[in-house]
Amino acid sequence: MPQMTMVEALNKALFELMAEDKNVLVMGEDVGQDEGVFRVTARLLKEFGPDRCIDTPLAEAAIVGTAVGLAIRGFRPVCEMQFDGFSYQAFHHTEGHMRRFRNRTRGRYTVPMVLRMPYGGGIRAIEHHSEAPEATYAHLGGLKVVMPSGPRNARALLRAAILDPDPVVFMEPKAAYRAFREEVPDEPETLPIGKGQVAREGKDVTLITYAAMVRPTLEAAEELEDDYGIDAEVLDLLSVSPMDTDLINASIRKTGRAVVVHEAPRHCGVGGEIIARIVEDSLMYLEAPIKRVTGYDTIIPFFANERTWMPDVGKVVKAAVETVRF
Amino acid sequence: MPRAKLEVPCKLEKLSVLDPDGKVDAKLDPKLPDNDLLKLYKTMWQTRLLDERCLHMQRQGRIGTYGPCKGQEATPLGVAYTLRKDDWYVPSYRELAGCLWRGWKIGRYMLWWGGHEEGSQIEEGVNDTPLAVPIASQCQYAMGIAWASKLRGEDTVCAAFCGDGGTSQGDFHEALNFAAVYKAPMVMVVQNNGWAISLPRDKQTAAQSIAQKAVAYGIDGIQIDGNDILGVIVAAREAVAKARKGGGPTLIEAITYRMAMHTTADDPKKYRSEEEVKAWEPKDPLTRFRKYLAQTKKILTDKVEKEIETQIREEIDEGVRIYESYELDQYAMFHNMYETPTPELRRQEAELRDYLENGRPDETPTEQSPTASERV
Lengths: 326, 376
Hints:
By secondary structure, chain A is α/β, with parallel strands linked by helices. Chain A has helices at 6-20, 44-48, 60-72, 91-98, 101-104, 134-138, 151-163, 214-228, 245-255, 270-282, 306-309, 313-324; strands at residues 3-4, 24-28, 53-55, 76-80, 114-119, 144-146, 168-173, 182-183, 197-200, 205-209, 232-236, 239-241, 258-265, 291-295. In chain A, α1 (6-20) runs parallel beside α7 (151-163), α3 (60-72) packs parallel to α4 and α8 (214-228) crosses α12.
């Protein structure tokens, strides 16, 4: 199996689906000639032509808004938002039409499209390029919000998202785009949307996270074992809507302790929902209050100070040790 | 040469065919078959009567807030007339006349205003989208629908509607810009009825016309008398034919007037004078069309008129009956968010079912609740 970065693995998924189904379109700003600012859409224009890999005028609302119309007509558009912070420019179409058409028309029209965006901080970008808006999208029924953490699951989940009969917001951790390589099988592979994975087995505390925070959390788990003798289990949710409640509760019932880790701000963040589901279903199994390691309820600082703001290995280790020693 | 006049190629026209007295410009007359004229008249009149019925029913509490379309029947109807069955019709919410022409069922239309999603479940075989609420947002998916025809190599066309207020939205601009860039087969119709709730047209844009906005997109624009069904048909026919042949989009500005309130939730006396409304009464699209058919064409006799009226009233009564006998499914919301409901939705549905079927808990508990430590 070839070793790939997440960018290469995502490109592989797009390439395969476009080859398999002529209804799959890729559209966005600079996705064609420039091959995407992160090169996720490399080779697509050359291979599939300008009617299938479409360089659009610079208007996020129109990219998503017109894609809704294309999807109603049976296309499967994959829209690229160049950066997370610009997806808000299209928000009224994501909220107002993309997620509503199936329900509004009682299934007469459906919108099988994907809204891809690189998300999160850590690449020293300018303002509006480092947002983590997953809770905003996860709050909207009718959407699925998928958040891969590595090259192999990114490829499998993007394939699942494009094949999904409903609209999917697909948030790619840009800090992980080229941070590491993984073996990605040649054969097409999918993962079920809404199912998480145990990224590391353990018995003392459950660290629940997803996407960009999976790697630092796994590192924290190693440190916890080496330096504190704590055996941490790490859950990689892969999707925050739907959320794998069964996976979370099974782990909590084993460890009795949890730390939730995400990059987005804390207030009304996905972590709150994770904890609510634990409290609803497994309160009596808890041995300690659940801690959250998240971005703070501020705007993510400009890049000179973004590392201070973002969760890191040390913050996760500290929270986990305090939870175990409660 | 440091400074010169910038030449902007454009085709910008103004058109009307049928005047308020029912007299037609013979050179521009689209010369429609009598049968079509009577059918159009039937639909226009039915729209007027259904609109009145909806207003009454709103006052009686039998439907919710209602947005009347009185005075604006000619434009959507004329545009719909020029479309093929397999073309697409993307309304905003004051395009009832075209909806009825396209085959929407009255009972289903009333479901929408009665608060049921099923009112948006467009009939199979009718290529239309449901009423759209966020102003001008429908222009964007309309453009996508038009674009799909082009990408598939089909010759179908998409006609989309918004109002004068909608032209201030970014969506209107972006959709027309995309449509022009990709030469999508789209006909963008602006029903300029003079008012966006309380804001008059001259405060909506400083441009002399809305049609001229076409120039900036590099497409053709035309301003028509939107209360003149024949003029609408002439302009729409040309725009549709051009789009079908790959000539790209056209912007049509139809000058009309909203004779009633924006919706039953507002009082137009607060923002416009009764004289202004009165001045528009002689330009009414329905009386104008009636005069043309009765006096100029002499095909609308009292007998024919009576027959039409009986038929349209019966159809409206039947629609009201269907609407009012509609049975609400309280759980349908859970089944239409996704193709397959998520586990959490199933859980919430079960929670609601338990509440609706079993109500509140017993007032006296049968046994003492265990403590936390006793539970595990």
